[in-house]
Amino acid sequence: MGKTPTADPIRTLSRKDRDKMQVQVTGQVPHKFVDSLPCTYFVSVASAINAELFTYPLDLTKTRLQVQGEIAAATEGLSTAPHRGMVKTALGIVKEEGLFKLWQGILPAIYRHSIYSGIRIVIYEYLKENVLTKEKDGTFPLWKSAVNGCTAGAIGQFIASPADLVKVQIQMEGKRRLLGKPPRIKTANAAFAKIYKEGGIRGLWKGAVPNVNRAALVNLGDLSTYDYAKRAILNNTSLPDSHLCHFLSSVCAGFVASVMGTPADVIKTRIMNQPTDEKGNGLLYKNSLDCLTKTVKNEGLFALYKGFLPVWIRLAPWSLTFWMTFEQIRYVIGATSF
User: What domains does the chain contain, in order, with CATH numbers?
Assistant: First the structure.
């Protein structure tokens, strides 16, 4: 990944602080594309796609694990499949469906990140610099970071929700075929068309509420924790703004994001995977609260953390890959450090 960046006090300043410094020195307002929001958007998307390609098999395994044992699986006869843990689920997919089935649904996942990841980072930076900004003493309180992270994640996920819906449904098709069930969808484009035909525009946002809830919680853990942890490391240790700093910050972010997001992820996956009527209404769950109640009643409280291990094992390397790629690209092009 190239040479490890060393400490650079100028680079760690915010975009606004760097602009003010340049105005004081040169008397001119700087115009750097590498520090613009459009450039930040493209860097975010590239970093997210890289992370998604690397960790997607864990996402597929997580989805299969969360759905097994639920009402939807029993209704469609999928409960006859053996119940497995994370490792056996992954190995079973390879053995029974083929190695490349671990990337089944990757295209809509890339569609999603082309929207979601770019928007969440851009909105977070905009809010951080223009709405809930630093205190007068230069510190950035955790509560402001948390609010910015939740807001950015919720907006980004709401816009990208149709692609996420298609991704989850495609991920479950391999299991249906394996059990001799007729396929509901074959391609991402066919899935979009089918969902739109059955439920219209509204149908494309089925599960949007749990989706947005999950994204808000995950970004509270990921964006906010990464930003806060990185600042804490730089301000309280001798570590420079380097790969090690990014590594430690991303590990913290991945763990907190998993703890915060797993219950909402379980609810989101089940709502998006349930069968619907001709109007696009769910046949098993009325809403997120109904799904939450039925899940706890039928399977117990800890069912909300079903799949926590694969969620964490996926989010940890995803967060690590994303943030280190993101920071390295920004370093190479000369942009401000996040």
Answer: 37-333 (1.50.40.10)
